[in-house]
TrEMBL record:
GO terms for molecular function: formylglycine-generating oxidase activity. Residues 494-572 form the Sulfatase-modifying factor enzyme-like domain. It holds the Pfam family FGE-sulfatase. This is Sulfatase-modifying factor enzyme 1. PANTHER family: FORMYLGLYCINE-GENERATING ENZYME, SULFATASE MODIFYING FACTOR 1, 2. InterPro entries: CTDL_fold, Sulfatase_Mod_Factor_Kinase, SUMF_dom, SUMF_sf.
Amino acid sequence: MPRPIDRPTTLPLDGPLDPEVGDVAKIFAAPQDPADWPAWRGALTRWRAEAHERLAYDGKQYDRPETAWTASCHSVALVWLWDERLFDRAGQRFDVAGFLDRTRDHGGFDGVVLWHAYPVIGIDDRNQFDFYRDVPGLRDVVAEFRSRGIRVFLDYNPWDTGTRRAAHDDATELALLATELGTDGMFLDTMKEADSRLVTALLTNEPPQVLEGESRLPNARVEDHQLSWAQWFADSAAPGVQRARWFERRHMTHATRRWNRDHSAELQSAFMNGTGMLVWDAVFGVWVGWHERDKATLRRMLRVQRALTPLLTSGEWTPLADTASDAVEAGVYASRFAGPELTLWTLVNRGETDFAGPALTAVNAHAQWFDLTDGRRLGLGADRITVPARGVAAVLAVRGTEPDWLAGLLAAAAEDRGATSTTFPARTARRVHPSPATGRPTVATVHVDGGPRELTMTYRRRETGTYQGAPYVEEWKPLPPRLHDPRSEVLTLTLADVEVAAHEVTAAEFAAFVAATGYRPSCENRWVAPEGDGPATMVSLDDARAYAAWAGARLPTEFEWQVAAGQPGFRRATPLVWNWTESEHTDGVTRFVMLKGGSDHRGEGSDWYVDGGPREPSFSLKFLLPGLGVDRSPSIGFRLAWEGR
């Protein structure tokens, strides 16, 4: 259920609102009785005037030509950098064109957040800046998105205080990184607002970086944060007004409820306010894809918003306007955005059945009317409008010459008839089956008997989930004790007879393999040939598999490793490192591997870091698999396994 801070705020119709409440409200709730709407609109106007005067607000930041694009950044995709729609793992290369093609059913994006470090940061001492700088060719990826008209945001993790320290403070480092990569903005993870040093460093950077805070940005910071997440914003039954958008019409919010499978409420709130959406269909390794109806609604919205951005940001906005009583009774509401020649009505249907009929009371005999979401010319009035169940519609009245873009928009709308399916587009994470061992053990081993078993798997419940499904579904904001709590599951499975190496492969053994074969990885980023007597680390999963194949072996699965670890003779090397296993899975979007054993390294200072320290054999870490050698870590080694005979 929504927390108190997520619920809409009631604005007094005939008195002031405490600034400590009003300046941080998420949404101003609309009265349910239409008779109260005129007084409510008057209260909204008075509230804004008072807030502007009290804060001496001038909005100069929004006048800057270099950053004015934020007002038209309606749809942003939050994408894990190694999302397999973007990163071609087989070819070890990024495929921007392929990503945009694979996600085109969302209507295209105006911006993209390249999420990079969480949830793998903390596996070793690399900091958040390393997880960008260690990626070969990332500047080219940014440049390709921008060449296609898509703005690129980086992600800032202020909680990253326990890894190695960068050469400069965070504000300076972020500005340098933005210049190196040529990006446009910064998403502030876990932060509603940046501090003054960070604001100054980013806004004065070359190129200037806009800031997008997570959740409810206070009025006092709307001046220097041109965007914000509308995250977990509960609305009233009659659609309310987003406070930050009403305060500054050019401020862009992006609505999101990350664990929802029905996004109609967010879409409708955004459409009524002329604001945007954050498309986040894979949350830190968990698939939460959008169903067809919501994607169709988003496409309908974006065609209208992109064509009419100036009207949405500077036209006369009248919330809850001109809606016929029968439509209101059916759950249909409208906002009006009016200019000298164009008037737009954005309509939403809160009901579960389609509404078809005279939705608007507005009359203008001197205008031509158009249904922008059905692609129809309506003539001299909007006598009959269809607003789909849980969907949206838009009507435009034009006085004078039709805009050049109108014919194309109508044609696109008529061609895209939308969809009604609300079936969740489930994905299954499938195990990548290894090639069997071809030889016999040449080192000491621990025998694992085959047959059926019940094994207890333990883990910490993070947003990454485990093997299948989401840890939270249609849930509001998960908080402790439902977040980061220790969990266990009993798994029933069948094991084959297997011999698991009693010790990890050492650096010296791996060096001998390199010397004997001349092995060079397909990607040499972060490649350091191991040496010494400790465990072989700084090896990718592919490097480990290459060694195993040379040795006539394979890697153990996570379950084989777990059972073997409970047998006499199973040893861990010093320093203690996680072990790669043959537990690679992919659902076509996220690829992950289960690591076993724990490590001496432990990220301190935040619960958002990867689990560290020694771990019991039952403990499994779901590790999202980076590419291009970024998975090479001083905290991950491996051991071998052979099928029993």
